[in-house]
């Protein structure tokens, strides 16, 4: 299936939908940037679309400690 971009904040996050799944993609790192792609629940995605500050809080949490979220990450390829 194709990833459909639903919402983004430049250099902070992108919210995708792939079929019935939602993925928050967050750039991390300082000198070497990499993406951490975390599946999120539909309820969280819909709440974040209604209030993007919620997605920003989640993205900030991921950026501050990406290693804590790597076990939940997936590949968007």
Question: Which short descriptors sum up this protein?
Answer:
2 helices; alpha+beta; single chain; 77 residues; 4-stranded antiparallel β-sheet
Give the structure's gist in a few sentences.
The chain is of the alpha+beta class.
Description:
This protein has 77 residues and is an alpha+beta fold. It has one domain (4-72). Helices cover 29% and strands 35% of the residues. Helix 1 (42-50) packs across helix 2. The longest helix is centred in the last third of the chain and has 13 residues, at 52-64. It is globular, with a radius of gyration of 12 Å. The relative contact order is 0.23. The mean pLDDT is 88.
Strand order of the largest sheet: 1-2-3-4
Low-confidence regions: none
Q: Compute the gyration radius: what is it?
A: 12 Å
Please report the number of helical segments: 2
Fraction of residues in H or I helices: 25-40%
Instruction: Summarize the main sheet.
Output: 4 strands, antiparallel
Shape: globular
Helix/strand order: EEEEHH
Number of self-contained structural domains = 1
- The mean pLDDT is 88
Task: Give the beta-strand count.
Answer: 4
Distance from N terminus to C terminus (CA atoms, Å) equals: 10 Å
Q: How large is the share of residues in beta strands?
A: 35-45%
Find the structural class using helix and strand composition.
alpha+beta
């Amino acid at each position: 299936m194709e990833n459909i971009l639903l919402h983004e904040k430049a250099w902070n996050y992108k919210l995708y939908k792939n079929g019935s799944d939602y993925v928050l993609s967050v750039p991390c790192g300082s000198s070497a940037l990499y993406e951490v792609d975390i599946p999120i629940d539909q309820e969280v995605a819909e709440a974040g679309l209604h209030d993007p500050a919620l997605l920003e809080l989640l993205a900030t949490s991921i950026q501050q400690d990406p290693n804590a979220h790597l076990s939940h990450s997936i590949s968007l390829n």
